[in-house]
Design goal:
Elements (H helix, E strand, L loop, with lengths): L3 H8 L3 H13 L4 H8 L3 H13 L3 E6 L2 E6 L4 H5 L4 H14 L9 E4 L2 H10 L7 E4 L5 H4 L4 H10 L4 E6 L12 E6 L8 E5 L2 E6 L5 E6 L1 H17 L3
């Protein structure tokens, strides 16, 4: 891997975190026991290492049956986590990408346990190849991403991506709706408990709390069901 290990440790990973992350790039998708076999790190320690990597937005997991299968995030996401280290990280991206094996197993859901992981998905949404539909909770987004809200809205304009938003009229007075966002308002009693974004064949839910949780669900069937529900509410909502 050349100097990849050294640079990842400069980025802030421990030696064991680096070893597990690189192993997951090669494995594509692996259980904790498979990671243990690949790295020779004791299984008791593997779970703590995976937890820390999830908190840094570098690892997520997929639920397959009742077992967790862990995946390394795309190495390019590292650039989004630490822009000031972009030059050094960019040098090893080809190496990391070459060793990353995309899982062939079906993916049902990916969990993001902190703001960094959530933001990586938010960054992708304005680039959607389809229209975007947003169930807005009315709170949580701006509180957790105060400097990012306007940037996120601007990216929809730059990418010419159409987005429709449903939100409770309870928040109407507080909102300034920039183009190309199109809002419609439901009754004030109708407040969504989470922020849910529909794009392409994906459903991304953000549960706002002291420690926000992101859930990315992939699948045409569930995505279409959510879109049908959105369209029903859209027809009853007011501009």
């Amino acid at each position: 891997m050349g100097n990849a290990k050294e640079i990842l440790q400069e980025f802030g990973l421990t030696e064991n975190e680096t070893q597990v992350y690189l192993a997951l790039l090669k494995l594509g998708s692996a259980s904790a026991s498979e990671i243990t076999q690949k790295t020779n790190i004791h299984r008791i320690n593997i779970y703590d290492i995976l937890e820390r990597l999830q908190e840094k937005g570098l690892v997520s997991y997929v639920i397959l049956g009742k077992r967790k299968h862990y995946e390394a995030s795309d190495p390019k996401k590292i650039l989004e986590i630490e822009e000031e280290r972009k030059r050094k990280i960019k040098e090893i991206i080809p190496q990391l990408s070459a060793e990353r094996v995309l899982t062939k197993e079906p993916q049902e859901a990916t969990i993001f346990k902190d703001k960094k992981g959530i933001k990586t998905i938010l960054d992708e949404i304005p680039k959607s190849k389809t229209d975007v539909y947003l169930f807005a909770s009315g709170w949580g987004f701006k509180e957790n991403f105060p400097d990012y809200t306007d940037i996120w809205h601007e990216r929809f304009r730059l990418h010419k991506t159409k987005i429709k938003t449903l939100i409770s009229s309870k928040f109407k007075k507080e909102l300034k709706v920039p183009k190309p966002l199109e809002y419609r308002y439901l009754s004030s009693e109708f407040v969504f408990p989470s922020t849910t974004v529909l794009y392409e064949d994906k459903v991304f839910m953000i549960l706002w709390s002291a420690h926000p949780l992101g859930i990315l669900i992939r699948g045409k069937e569930i995505s279409n069901s959510y879109k049908e529900f959105f369209n029903i509410l859209w027809e009853t909502a007011k501009p």
